[in-house]
Amino acid sequence: MNDKEKLQLAIGKRVKLLREEINMPQQDLAAKCNIEKSNLSRLEAGGTNPTLYTLKKIADNLGVSLEELVIKL
């Protein structure tokens, strides 16, 4: 596994952890972020490289800062 894949996996795990901490279904977060549920599912599984804008939307809808989303990787 290369560095890019490791980072994608870490980001996905972090998004999933924060989402589950507030008991938000994947479908709800996807709708709030205006992205497809399948895309969010892939992101959480580490299968996609999200843009900074997408990460910001996710962080906002999880009630955390972008820094809190990515700094604790």
Strand tally: 0
* Cα end-to-end separation: 17 Å
**What is the alpha-carbon Rg in Å?**
11 Å
Q: What is the CATH-assigned architecture?
A: Orthogonal Bundle
Quickly count the helices.
Answer: 5
Strand content: under 5%
- How are helices and strands ordered from N to C? HHHHH
In short:
The protein is mainly α and 73 residues long. It is built from five helices and no strands.
Report on this structure.
By secondary structure, the chain is mostly helical. It has one domain: 434 Repressor (Amino-terminal Domain). Helix content is 71%, strand content 0%. It has 5 helices and no strands. The protein has helices at 3-21, 26-33, 37-44, 52-62, 66-71. Helix 2 (26-33) crosses helix 4. It is globular. The model has no long low-confidence stretch (mean pLDDT 95).
Please give the structural blueprint.
Elements: H1 3-21, H2 26-33, H3 37-44, H4 52-62, H5 66-71
Descriptive labels:
73 residues, mainly alpha, 434 Repressor (Amino-terminal Domain), 71% helix, 0% strand, TransReg_Diox_bact_type, Cro/C1-type_HTH, Lambda_DNA-bd_dom_sf, DNA-binding, Helix-turn-helix transcriptional regulator
